[in-house]
Amino acid sequence: MTKTTNEIRLTVVVDNTANPNLISEHGFSLWIESNEQTVLFDTGQGPAFKENVHRLNIDISKTDTIVLSHGHYDHTGGLPYALSMAQSARLFAHPDVSIPRYSVSDNVARSIAMTQISHEAMIWHPVDTTWTTSPTLIADNMGVTGKIPRQTNYEDTGGPFFVNETGSHPDLIEDDMALWLRTECGLVVVAGCCHAGIINTLRYALEISGESHLHAVIGGFHLVNASKQRMEKTVKDLRLLNPDILIPCHCTGQAAIEKLEHEFPSSIKPCLAGSVFRFPVTGNGKNVKLLLQ
Predict the structure, then answer these.
(1) What is the pLDDT of residues 229-281, one digit of tens each?
(2) Are 221 and 238 within 8 A, CB to CB?
């Protein structure tokens, strides 16, 4: 797609569900086209990313910027392919993105870290990686949050995450970050997994962007393991944030999505690989156009 001056176009490349002509996998990747930048946000596990890029006719070689939301395998697996195709792309990531990390349940550890091949692809990429722990601009109206402050008393990382196989050292997933887009409609926030908490993420994105109105949020909200109490508090705080549009994907969880659909029936938009969302950057933009390819 040729960059335009009147819209931001978001294409879901990888998600847990997919349109019939695409491949689904547990992971997330989003292709963002604006008048300022062409951005690849996360890369899924890898197989679905590579296949879906071709089926969606996305020219990855035109990527200006790659952003990694955090260092889990289901967000970084397609990185070797992406970097091989977009050798001039800038890469933004937190310094902890490649640390060892595990999910430990019933004394059984499963590695969920970035793979070695993805790590090596980062190391050998011709363009130096921008390591960021604080808010960083990508363009005039676009930036990444860096490390997100954990301020709510009810949000957590969302799972049994550790940095060692014995499960004695919790992984706070401090590399978790989001991307924000400033539009004339208000702020659009793109999240990978919200391990810092969806409310913490949205509040911080509003604070650092200088925007007062939250227009939309898309990505994984990581409410799949949320307790009833957490869900109720999340809904209460979402009402205060008053987003126009909610697009829950990936790790949000079906029960949480159904709860959000019930509480915000006019705001929820369905999301799956192949979904395309167009956000006007002029006018009031209250009704995002949803195209299913």
Answers:
(1) 999 999 999 999 999 999 999 999 999 999 999 999 999 999 999 999 998 87
(2) no
d(CA 22, CA 51): 8
Kindly give the residue spans of alpha helices, DSSP state H, lying in the chain: 47-55, 73-76, 79-85, 116-124, 198-209, 228-241, 254-263
Q: What is the pLDDT of residue 282?
A: 52
User: What is the per-residue DSSP string for 182-226?
Assistant: EETTEEEEEES--TT-HHHHHHHHHHHHT-S-EEEEEEE---TT-
Q: Is the pLDDT of residue 62 over 80?
A: yes
Phi-psi region of 30 (alpha: psi -120 to 50; beta: other; left: phi over 0): beta
Q: pLDDT at position 136, please? A: 96
The residue written with tokens 């706070």 in the block is 172
Rounded CA separation 12/56 (Å): 10
Longest dimension (CA), the chain: 54
Q: Which CATH architecture does the domain made up of 7-292 adopt? A: 4-Layer Sandwich (3.60)
* Bridge partners for 143 per DSSP: 137, 180
Indicate the domain borders of the chain: 7-292
Q: What is the pLDDT of residues 45-54, one digit of tens each?
A: 999 999 999 9
| Residue among 188, 191, 201, 95 at smallest CA distance from 148 | 201
